[in-house]
Amino acid sequence: MKIRANGIEISYLAEGDGPWLTMSHSLACDLHMWDEQAAVLAKHFKVLRFDTRGHGGSDAPKGAYTLEALADDLKGLLDALGVKETHYVGLSLGGMIGQTFALKYPGILKTLVLADTTSRYPAEAASVWAERVKIAETQGMEPLVQPTLDRWFTEPFRSANPGKTKRIGDMIRTTPVAGYAGCSNAIPKINVTARLREIDVPGLVIVGEQDMGTPIAMAREIHENYPGSELVIIPSAAHLANVEQPEAFNSALADFLAKHR
Question: Model confidence over 126-143: pLDDT tens digits?
């Protein structure tokens, strides 16, 4: 399904019944990244998944995006669907959007789950993201597929789960270059660590034990600056902890949401 909000067409799925729960995916994925979580959560929640600007079935305008604009996209989607309050789960870029949204639009989120994400990047990260954008714009997405999978999953998982790995690889491969570039311009600019204390809803920080992109140190920094938040480290998982270890991820989510439903 699609809805027009904040000047673009946004693709989304809403399933289940109960309190609203919104899920936001990683860069170079789409709403189906959450399939295993949505199947469980939809038994107790009205689960809203959407494709971030530049991804999946949503529009992919050219130019640099900002995290504020991505938060505005979410606000427009929620408004169009009549959602007044919602739980929120975001991974990687989705977690950055969640932090930005919580600060810009207080009072809407009931809980905030931040998985495999960061609240700030060091200055030198900008050149890494710029190089990835250059590759995408000059060679397309294909050269980024394998290096990204190597960062996102542990080697034992990639070897034992070729089907799941290929499914995520296909998401990366089919991400519009404009969307990848637009979001990659926004990501390294996140810098909200000092403001996390302003977020006054229950929080859960999840991180894969072997996440190279947003490692445990970044998760700890969020946790230490977000009063009252909980921290869960998922063993034998890298960046897409929800895909690599869905049972452990779902268990952490269920325990947290049960306390704050």
Answer: 999 999 999 999 999 999
